[in-house]
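FW: tagging you since you asked about this chain on Friday. Here's the raw sequence from the shared folder, copied in full. Didn't touch anything.
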Amino acid sequence: MEIAIVLTLLLIAVVLFATEKISIELVTLLMLIILAGLRIITPEEAFAGFSSDFIIIIASIFILSAALEETGILDFAIVSLVRLAKRSNNLMLLMVMLVTGVVSAFMNNTTVTAMFVTPLVGLSKRINRSASKILMPLAYAAILGGTCTLIGTSTNVAVSGYIAKAGLEPIGLFEISGIGLIIFLVGVAYMMTIGQRMLPDHTDQQLAEEYKLQKYLTEVVVMPDSPLIGQLVFASDLTSLNLRMLNIIRGKENFLPDFRTRIHESDILLVEGDLGDLMKVKETKGIEIMADVLAEKDLETENIRLAEVMITRQSNLINRTVKEAEFLRRFGLVVLAVSRHGESLRSKIGSIALKMGDVLLVQGAPQRFEQVRSSNHIAILDEFEPLLYKKRKGIIAICCFVLAIIAGTMELLPLSIAFLLAAVVSILLRCISTEKAYSAIDWRLLILIGGMTAFGTAMENSGAADFLAHGIVDIMGPIGGKLGILAGFVLLTVILTQPMSNAAAALVIIPVALRAAMEVGADPRAFAIAIMLAASVSLVTPFEPACILVYSPGKYRFWDFIKIGSPLTILLIAVILLLVPVFWPI
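HL: got it, structure written out here
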């Protein structure tokens, strides 16, 4: 009975993670409450993951990464790098991937991607190079660079903590560097050859023309003098504007029009279209683009300009609606339209809950854009100015990071204490303020990892891990022995990382894999490391946070990631299955 309950909860969690109808941290906490309430796990087991040392390591790395970003040292580095390499597009791409991979080996890959997106978009415009030719390789380099060290990704830290709890030796800081470096270099070689040829080339254009590469949602209000009043929606003058009608808001009603629907005065029409077509709305009598307050009658004048802004990883606007964000009061900018990597949004702009990576078309005075340039919550994509380089504090932040790595590697201090000390010192020496240190921590990720660790315990306690392990051994064992069983778990991990986060998928599979390894007399640690690496090479879809961050700025389409990422994922799976038994004999 308990096995059925745990597996049902797992299925529900996968569906909820994929649909995002409920935030992942709430799903995780609800699962813990149910499992503890049904006494499948004890309260101590439910919350043990939150007090583990790997949670301290992850939080400390977030703070140290933010300190490096705050000092401007990474902006300075990437500007210098691109200036050196811009004589050759291939050299620039190679250098960007190598630098990103090196940095990502010691920092969270989502953080690294977020820090480099805006500089690369701005700099690609300066050298007349399409951002779409750079951003996907950037995301892939950040993801694969994380496989080179224990602290390169939160998944590695979480898996190491789990196997240590299971009585196995934790993973050393540089233990996976050999295979991780090979995985990274294979990824770089692929993107420099096959991948580069498949990357889309969205040439730089004027802003109004550039937006034609993606659809935007906006609201059009029907004015009292509009000739549209009384016209059938799908036979109205709007059809000449190439706008796609999504919904009509009439009073308190929000409905999808049909062939009999007529337009009424004061209707708010939710439409989707290219920016060029949206601009024609301003020239059409009786209809207006609706925003909180339009600063001018025209979309862009000498004193009012348009720009793209992206919701950043650390933004406190995530999960808040456009209306709740109060863009006009807070930033002095009016939100005219929203783009979310190809997804059709069917709500009023004001009620759209923002997500990481969303790109907003905003309007405002030039001085307003200057004021928000240093914001941690939105990034202006149409140009880039590096942060003021604080050399002394940058050196201090780097020294704190390096000394923590040395102390942890040489076992002068436990790894968690070494990184916590480095984070505290960086705050004490004012490399980063306390407030920004707190905001830099991805609390949702910590809740997810802590909760999924407890879910792994529930799978063991209930017998679900044994049940699934026997099933996979029975299916894959006769096909390929130990290696075949390992391949089954690797493929299952890759599949699960599509609807779930990498860390969550790994923590679900690990207890099952450990049981299976012990059953067939294989090395459980080798199985755990293979699954950990597999969770970081699933590049088939853009659901990985690093890919989400580059989706809209790169003007990519969903198919771009499938076309380029699928062959690379298959190639990297083969590398893992070939080399894990070499480094850790099974």
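FW: Residues 93 and 134 are 6 Å apart (CA to CA).
HL: agreed, and The two ends are 33 Å apart (CA to CA).
FW: great, closing this out.
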